[in-house]
Write a structure and sequence with these properties.
180 residues; alpha+beta; 7 strands; 33% helix; elongated
Length: 180
């Protein structure tokens, strides 16, 4: 089992970051994400929490030895469930790979919450587990590859989301000036 985590603050208020979540894809910095399908969206009438379930389609070039041993292709799918709590200003996202899930699993969790009026705290964790106990050396190789791929994509995702937030902020400022 391998783990990943990162914590940092975005220089944007929580409400701005949550709006940006829905504008992250498509994005040239995250070209591996090729499709997003919303399966379900609902609002809890009591709490006001918004629940969204999506499937992200990705193109990931897997090492040849993984494809030869376990099959599959560079097409991969990820199930994502998010909860947005506007009242308490909390946003959480959990995702899990659907492709080759019988071989290895990547469980990701993300949380956004206010760090201040103008900054939002971001916490991302991932737990990567290969499901082949009898072939520990192969499992370690799969986990290391998945961890490296996750780290690379997390870095790209951070850059891409920073661009999205900056562009949304600039657009908001332009609209505010135009309204004067």
């Amino acid at each position: 089992m391998h783990f990943f985590n990162q914590v940092f603050n975005y220089d944007h208020p929580w409400s701005h970051v949550v709006i940006g979540m829905w504008h992250k894809y498509p994005n040239p910095k995250c070209s591996h994400v090729v499709s997003i399908d919303v399966l379900d969206r609902s609002v809890d009438p009591v709490t006001g929490i918004i629940r969204t379930e999506r499937v992200l389609g990705c193109k990931q070039k897997a090492p040849g030895w993984i494809l030869k041993m376990f099959g599959g292709s560079e097409d991969a799918y990820v199930r994502e469930i998010s909860f947005i709590d506007p009242k308490n200003q909390r946003a959480s996202i959990s995702s899990v790979n659907m492709s080759l899930n019988n071989v290895a699993q990547c469980l990701e969790s993300i949380e956004y919450r206010p760090a201040s009026q103008t900054h939002t705290s971001f916490l991302q964790t991932a737990e990567i587990t290969a499901r082949m106990a009898i072939w520990r050396s192969v499992a370690d190789g799969v986990e290391r590859w998945m961890l490296q791929r996750f780290q690379d994509n997390a870095a790209l995702g951070k850059l891409a989301f920073t661009d999205v937030l900056r562009n949304l902020w600039e657009e908001r400022n332009v609209q505010a000036v135009a309204a004067l």
